[in-house]
Every structure is written in structure tokens, then in C-alpha cells.
């Protein structure tokens, strides 16, 4: 709230002034005398919501903003103000309880936040002021202060790196606490800042605080006494973010530019938008129905009351005269208060406890996911992670699964398989998987058929060695091996294979070598090159060292890195060799390289690339170009200029990159294998069997993705593929738009119109003759479909596209940009029937689709932790998805659906007798039950069994759910919470309510129910009804329980025993605080009456009779496939049970 | 070592509970269980139903309306509200022995003892003998808390005020002579009401406790004079008062008035003619109510109640019927799981 307001304020500020100026060390420059240092916020982090003083009002305000709480507050206030039948305690107590528990929980959480804030705010930091080191508390840092940070310390605010203790003016940081990526990232000092910070006179101009962690533009003006001010560009590589930790560097100095709540970390510290589950929407719809029932009940009663009172003698019989005040009250006011009184009397139909129970169920239930040891992955030593418990049941409702390919379907564990140099294929003969198998005796490169020229070979390998952003992990002597095991992306590789031809020449520290890179492909390539004899030794300031095949160390000066980005899909480096040649090496996806190289070279390599792609390998093409001095100067100038730009830097850089990366010559291509995840195919098959449609959204090439799809059995042999890609569009040589239209119509005809009318949700039988269709689309075509030139076409294409996709078993979208992934998810999410979508991915490029889908699942993979942080659930491996959905999701859905229906049911048959009683008590709002019963019914007597049920129920045991994916379809489309089942439960509630009331009503035709001739009064009446009610609703749940653990036994029988015990206790004592001893000995007296016993037994049995019949009769209604299978399953369930019992006991 | 510890710390507990593998009983409502169960339950219910029905049939009930709306009714003369201290005689005859013990009830209809305002109009503090509440009755008694002179009413409230005050004397007419049938007024109220819940203030004589208070407006006599014959049956523990204070659940109700247990009537009321002398005080016609007297004997199940017996018979036969239907269905479609 506060933070949002702050942001809005900041946002306004941003529009006013679009950059901030900071004087380094508060030394204003001479020519800037008039400059008034602007005020920036201090470095205090406030993540807490409350203070001691405002806790109560603010927390109450927050809590009563929830519509349900507000409703109960209103009811409570009505009870206090108006003379109502039940005391305010009956609704006040539960409300108070709920509010207090929530307040305590939130208060505790806020206290923890306060503690954490304090820890951060009071953390001592070193500030350099006038050459002295001053220790300060972190919260006192001001923008412009120069700070000193030591190794392994976290940065107290966002800093611009000025000075590093390392020789090469770099420092390493990990951003583990920011985005979870534990790899070391290199940051650079601002070039040309003086070594002596004391005399540095500079100002920094930078943009206003923005939450994007990876974007920063700024400019530094360095004033020197006798020179023009020098201008240096600042980028994210100069910015050290608060929250990240300094590593591998002794000490650095930096100037604070964003402090406190304006740091990028603080700006990012915002709750994700709340996702609401379909169940919650159902609950709200049901609530509305019940609210209508409530209001109409109150209206009916009020109307009838005044109709009835109109009859002579009924309004004010002599035995019940009104007080003077009542006589004086305005008729309409009376009517209104009567209406309110009825509302209060019947308000228990919407129980406050349902919200509590639902929340508890979700919160506690989610523990079963984290506890599940099947989700534990011994490799990363972590289990599943639940980021939100609000969506547990949504896991049982998934209709569309959007999965990333790399790292999700595949392991993202790259292995260099082969390469193709100048059209010749190179592959290891001894392609054993273990590392020692690479030992090659007759030379580093093994000829497959022919061999390219040695020069080309070496050029290619040099390119592999140079064109990357890999760092060599410096291995401290102690315990390298151990730490390797812990590091995510460090790959310790013994290079003894290399040592075969020159062991003695290698210095010992190189034998253990780790590479750190942001993408595993790069590591695989560097390692691949190493196998061929070219070893990358690392950086030395700006020089890259490589060890060639002949054991020469070559040095290359790194001039520029043209970073990788998903749009360009390539990266380049510009290096200068010792001989003075300036070379540009570029590697990237074939589609982005081929247009930029000479065409005759392409043909030689394309075949190889395509073959590799169909085999499921990831291919990269490598190209190079000689830059003559003139060209280089031009490129250099362009790059520098673009990097300095404060606005549109990205676009400008992109333009320069594109300009530089032209006219290259292709050297070769690489193939890297990304193996499938364990059980990827089985998982996909299970998901499809469960009726989910699996869409693969990948940035990868179509061929690679297609082969992965085949490998995952998403496409089967008999699947007819409908392709809508740039290639198919270019067939026929007509305009793309036309061709697109034509293809869409054609596919639509094939997949939608000609397909036999299969209703949505009806099971697809495996043996059916109808065709399976697979659909393939690529990013370029997708954007044509979605953003067609003409408006009318656009919506029509979109419709056609959606319909085709929905009729295909699997859809593959390749060449997707991250935003396109989200676009697709959004499109499906908003399509007809609003299906429940699930996105699963592991990398930063999947975050947008994870956030977009109803349920986002992150895989704790190799590409950092961003996906995990933004996901709703995180699992270590893809194979866990099966259990998560088919077992956990299914069970959670069944549990909560039953919980919701049961809650409405039990409150309907609770309140219906009270409503009916109004017809027999002159519509006087006389409660049927005692206040204690009214209050305790939902809190104590009937709450625990349903909570236990909703946590423990396994109507079908987990193994069976996993083995029979089709069971998942049984609950598809919110099956248990649609209006049909709701109507059934409501009917059941009405039936029970009528039965309870009229059963006892006919018994009370003669109220002499004891063998001593004494009569029972109205509280006995209510108590009998209530006893029947409590027993019936509890036993109804017992009937529904298919999985009786000792906990179920305990709470079900315990609740009933507690009810009996409580009733005895409540009626056994004259309670001094009660105004009326209404229930004194009523319960005990009731039990002394045989008739009361008999009617209780009769009514309980009669209420449950239809239920029992339904359970039995549901089976023999004929050899229905679904039911038969269910019976079979139940049997296997029993078998499984007998399997488990001996183990677990 | 460190690694191992980490692994242990992160690895979920492998307990039956956390893995959702608690041993569980999975009951199956299969036809094999349900059909015999239904037959058993059905037979048991039919048995109970027959017992209830027979018992209920054996209970004799004699109900006589004495409101006096019809002109030929003996109490017609008393139905005029202007007539005070009216007494009417209700003659009836019993053909065969009315087996005892006979319970004598009075019944009212269209009388809303369960009206909310009425129901709340009492002061339990007063009724438990709290003298403070004598001088300051609870607000809930309003408008029956103070009389027009601002004197507190004890017992206050609408329920107490409207206490039923018709009295009955039963005569057996033997050869034209009227012979008094003794009516037992003990044990007609709940034991706990008489002994625990309602207490007179511990002041002797009881009358002194009621100083500075007035009797309820409708009452002819103050609370401490309710039963002239038995001084222990006065004040708040008067049995008739207690019976009245236990409010009826429905607008048509009956309340226990007396038991006929004494002497020669221990076995019951012998066949013959009887005359009931009614002191007709209680007005009911203003609200379309009726009054009646009910003679009934009771059994182990209480008073006559055909509903329970019939309900048991119906449900029992339903169960049996259902089991037969199920058996037929079962024979036709062989349940696969019952092999």
C-alpha cells in the first residue's frame, strides 16, 4: 500500500525530471557552484507495515476490508444496536476469534520484518569522508557517499563501482539474494576514474530509480583541473545492487546512487499480483446464492409477520403486551428492524468459519507438497517449494500445460556432440559418456570422413575459445573439489584427456578447471574446444588467453563484447590478436547467422545443421570477419557512442550491433546435445492421458523442438503435423498474408470441421480412429496471426488459430520470444470456457508465462532461480509434475470442493429448521437453538471432522491416481463445484433441514415424552433438532470419507463425544454469567426420554438413507465404463492398501 | 560431513503422516454389506415400530374441549369475558377402566408461548431467589416489571403474569353422588426445576420476602399464596408455576396438570360417569385460542404418539423394500467386486 503510493509518487517525479545528478563524495565541481544538491531519501529500509501505535487501527482496517469480515462486522453491529433474537456474542465471538488470530499472525510477521529491517538498517558500513574512514550505521548513508565494502559483505545500497582491489578493475558479485543466481557476475569499475578517490571530482547523471534489475543507464562526468570534463558511460555492469554480495574481491569502493526505498531491491520487493483459484470464484458464486437465500428468507418472514399480525388478536394478545416504546415506534422502522433481526437470526447460513477453515486447509495442505519425499531431488538436495498455498486445488484443474523446452523437457545439461567445420563433420568415435573416454591418441581431432583444412579447423576452435563470456573459476587451493559439487554452474572438468600429448607442460593448477557462464551452452562449447586441443585459460585484465593445440599460449585483446540477447539470438566478440589483426567472432542461431554470411558457404553447412537439429541437438553457427582498421574504428566509435546514450540505449546498441555483424564468413556449426529430462516422455504421456493439452513454447529452432516433441511422445508416429511456419508460408511463392489465410482455413477445415464432433471434456479414447493432430507455429508467424495488418483479419485469424490449436493434441510453438510465450498463455486463458492453464519453466525467459498462467511452476534448474522465485510452486524435476498434478492436485481439488460444498450444506440444514420454526412462533425471531449451540456449531461441533477430511482424504489412493491418468478427467472443468453438484448439495441440505424440523415437530404433537408424563418445552425441541443435526452432518461426512486414518476416527467420534460432553456440561451447571438458564438439564432430560432417542435415531438414519442408497445404486446402473473402471480401481486401492499396511505399521 | 547434514536437513521426513501414507481403513459400501445391513436395520425398525405402535395404541386418551364457543357447551356461559369467577361442570363418562396412572393435562391452542418477546420476559435471578432482583426486576420483564405505581412485580415478566389459572376438580359420579377424585400435584414439574433452578428466597415466612413488591397484574393471589393447601408448594417452586414457566415449543400445547395416582384410583379410573368442575378464569377467545383437558395414561415412550410408531414401520419397510430391490438389481448385474 505504502510502497505502491511511494512508487506512484516516484513515478510522478520521474516524469518531472527524468534523471538525477549526484556529486561523488559531495564535492561539487567548480563550474557547478550553483548546483543545489537535491534531496534523496535516506538509506532506511522499511518493509514493515505497522508501528506499535498504528498496528491496531491499521490492522483492523486492513482486515475489515475483506468483504467477508466486513459482512460479519455489520451483522455484529446490527446485533449490538437492534434488539435482535441472538446476543451479539454469538457472532461477535467467532469474529473476534478470527480477527485476533489473523492480527496475531500478521503482528508476528511484522515483528519479524521489523527485526530484519533493523538488522539491515543498523548494519555498520564504512564511509570515506575527507580521506578518513568513518563507521556509520547503514541507514545513515546518503546519496553521494563513497563507501568501502569488503569481501563477502553485502552492499548496503546501490553503488557505482569506482575502485576495486583487483588489478583488472573488476569485481565479482553474486546476486543470490536478489534473483537466486549463485554464479559470480563480473562488474567493472568506471574507466579512467583516478586511483585516488580523494581527489576525484565527478558527478553522476543517471535515471531515476527503476525496478528492472538488469537495466541501468547513466553517465559520469569527471572533472579534472586542467582538462575538459571526461564523460564515461555507466551501465548495469558498473552498478552494484543492494542485496548482492561481494565475492572473490578483497575490497571495493563505490558511490551510493540509490538508497533506501529507492534501491532496485526495494523497488522489486513487491508482492506478486494475487492469483485467485477457480474454486474461490465458485465459493463467491455460491455465497451470492446463499446471500440471496438469506435475504429472501428474511423478507418472507418479515412479510408474513406483518400479514399474520394483521389478523385480529394476533398482534398483541393479552398475555404478551408491548412496551410503550414498541407501541410508539414507527411501523416502517419496526419492519426494518424486524428484517434486520431475521437477517441476524439466519446469518449463520454464511459461516465466518468457512473462510478460516478454507484458509487453514490451504495453508496446512500445502505442507504435504513440501513434505513429499518423492519431490526430493538428491542432486540439488531440495524438495518442492510452495510459494503460494492459494492454488493447491487449481493443480487438479489444469487443462492446458505450457512447457518450456530447454531445461524443462530437456536437462539443460549440455554436452558437446559434434561440430561441422567448413562442411565437414567432426565427431568423436569414442563417444562414451564418461569424461575419460575422450582420450584420443592419434591427434586431437578425429577425422570422420574428410578433414577441413587445418587452418579452418584452428580458426573454428579459436572462435569457440574466444567468442563467449565464460569465466574461469579461480580455484583456491583448499577444497576445490568440494565446492565444485555445491556450485550450480561450475563444471569441474579434469583435463587429463588433454594431457595425453603434453602432460608435463601443463601447470598443476589447470588440471582442475571450472568454467562459469550464464548459459550452459557456452560452457559446453568451451569444453568442446578444449577436447579438440584449444583451452581457454581465462582473462588477464582485458586479454584472453588460450592454449593452442601446440601448447602455445596465445593472447587476444578483448575489444568489445556484443552481448547475447534473445532477439538477435547471437553474440559476438571483437578481439585483437597479437599480430594486430582485428577479428570479429560471432556465434548464434542459424537463422540469425545465415542471412549475415555469404550464401555459398551456407549451403555447405545448412545440411549438417538441419540434420543435427532433427536429431534433437542444439545447433549454433560460428562466423567470423576480419575488420580492417577503418572498419574497426567505425564500429568502435559507434559502440562507444551507443553505450553512452542515456536514452534508447538498447535500440541504439542494437542498431550498431546489426551493422557490425554483417558480411561475415561462416566457419562452421556446433551441435550440443541437451538430453531429455528423466521420465519426460512418461510425464507428458500421463498429462495427455489426463486430458491436458500440452503446448511446448520454446525459443529453440523448429527442427530441434520437433525432435524433442517426438522424443517426449508429444507427437506420435501417426500424428498429423500441421505446420504454420515461415517456411510453409513461403511455399507457393505468394504473399505471406494470403498464404497464411489459406493455410489457416485449410487446417481449420481439417482439424476442426472434419473432426468428429467430440464434445469438450468427453474422454478421448485411445483406440479411436480419428486423427491426432499436432500443430507447429513459429514466432514470426504467430506475430502475423496476432498482429495482422487489418483489424478484422486479426480477430478472425486469432479465432481460427485458437480453434485449430484446441483441436490438436499437442502444439509446438518455436522461436518464441518470452513475451510471446505470455501472449499465447493469455490468449488461451481468455478463450472460450476460460480453461485453467499451467506454465512450467526454469529460466528467466519463462517468467512472463509463469506469471501469466493460472498456475506457474518453476523448475529448480540450472538457469538461475528467477523462474522459481516467480512461480507458485517449484519442483526440482519435470517428472515431479506428474505427481504434483495427478495425485496432489487431484486430491486437493476433491478435498476442497467437498469442503466447500459440505460447508454450505451443513449450514443450510442448520438454519433451515430455525427458519421453519418462525412459522410456529408467530414470526417472532425466536431462535430454535440455544445461543451456545448457535455459536459452537461451526466452531467446535462440526469444524474438525471436515478439516481433517479436507487434509487427509484420499478417495482414490495415490498410486492409483498416478497409474490411471484418466481419473484426472473426472474432475475436469471444476466438476465438483459446478451448479449441478451445488444444487444436489443444496437439495440435500433442504431435505435434511425439513426432515429434522418436521420429524421433531410431529413428535411434539404430544410433548409428553417422558414416562413420568412430564412435558418438554421449546429448548428440548431445539436440542433434539440440534442433536439430530450434529450427528447427521457428522455421519454424512463419515459416509463420504473413503480414507479413515486414526485422525479421522479421532476427530469424527471425538466431535460427537465432545458434543455430548459439552451438552451435559453446559446443561449441568447453573452458569452465573448467563441471564437465563435456558438449557439447564435439558439435554440430560432429553436423554431420559425413550421417544427422544428413538426419534433421533430414526431421523439420522432416514437422512442418511438416500445417501447410502446412492452410493450403492451408483454402481449397478449398468456396465458403464467409467464406473466399472472405478470399481476396479477401488479394488486395486484395496490391494495397495494391503501392501502398505505392513510397511507403515 | 557437511553435505550429509545438509541433505538430512532438507530431506522431507519420511513418516507416514508427511507422506500421506497413514494406515487407513477404506470402507466399501458394497451391496454385500448394504443388503444384509438394510434387511437387519429394516427388521429392527419394523420391530421397534410394531412395539411403538402397539404401545401407542394401548394408551388411552380422553380429550375434552371446554373453551365454550359452541352454545351447547357447558362452559359457554363462562366464555363471555365479562363473567367473573365462573364455574362450569364438564360431564363425561368412561366406558371401561381407564388404566392408571392417569395423567391429567390441560391444553391450549393458538397460544404462542414461544413468542420471542414473551419468552425473554422473565428474570431468572428473581426466580432463583435473589432478593436484589426483587426490588429491581430485569429490563427484559418490561412491560411487566413495575406496576403503575412503580412497585416491582414479583415474579416479573409476561410468562409469569400469564400463568394458567383455570382450576379443575374431578368428581366420580357414583349413583348420582359426586365423589372427589384425588389429584396429585406433586412431580408434575421437572425435578431439576423444582430442586435446583427455581429457588424461593431463604426468608421465613416467605411472605416477608415479597414486601414492597406486588403480585403480577393478572394473578388473583400473590406468589406465596399459590397453594393454600400445601405451604411447601408456594412461591417459585409451586409445581403449577414451574410447569407453566417451562414454555411450550409449539403454539398448540398441553401441560401436565395433575396425576391421578391416589388410593382407589391407583389402578386407573374405573368405568363410569365423571364430572369435572372447572373454575373458568383464563381468557383465550381474544386470540382465537381453545382450551381443553386431556386424560391420558403414559407408557415407556411417554404419551400417545402414533407418529413415531408409523414412522418406524414405514422406514423399516422401506429398508426391507430397498434391500429387495437391490437384491434384484444385484442378481441381474452381478457386481464385479463381490466375487
From TrEMBL, chain A:
Keyword Methyltransferase: no
CC cofactor: Mg(2+)
Top enzyme category: translocase
Entry's Gene Ontology molecular function annotations: ATP binding; ATPase-coupled intramembrane lipid transporter activity; magnesium ion binding
Catalytic activity: a 1,2-diacyl-sn-glycero-3-phospho-L-serine(out) + ATP + H2O = a 1,2-diacyl-sn-glycero-3-phospho-L-serine(in) + ADP + phosphate + H(+); a 1,2-diacyl-sn-glycero-3-phosphoethanolamine(out) + ATP + H2O = a 1,2-diacyl-sn-glycero-3-phosphoethanolamine(in) + ADP + phosphate + H(+); ATP + H2O + phospholipidSide 1 = ADP + phosphate + phospholipidSide 2
Location in the cell: Cell membrane; Early endosome; Endoplasmic reticulum membrane; Membrane
Family matches, as InterPro entries: ATPase_P-typ_cyto_dom_N, ATPase_P-typ_P_site, ATPase_P-typ_TM_dom_sf, ATPase_P-typ_transduc_dom_A_sf, ATPase_P-type_domA, HAD-like_sf, HAD_sf, P-type_ATPase_IV
PROSITE patterns, sorted: ATPASE_E1_E2 (PS00154)
Residues engaged in binding Mg(2+): 404, 406, 842, 846
Catalytic residue list: 404
Name of the protein: Phospholipid-transporting ATPase
Species annotation: Pagothenia borchgrevinki (Bald rockcod)
Lineage: Eukaryota, Metazoa, Chordata, Craniata, Vertebrata
From TrEMBL, chain B:
Domain of life: Eukaryota
Compartments where found: Membrane
Gene Ontology cellular component annotations, sorted alphabetically: membrane
Pfam annotation, one family: CDC50
Keyword Secreted: no
UniProt KW keywords: Membrane, Transmembrane, Transmembrane helix
Bilayer-crossing regions: 33-54, 310-331
Similarity field: Belongs to the CDC50/LEM3 family.
Name of the protein: Cell cycle control protein
Organism: Pagothenia borchgrevinki
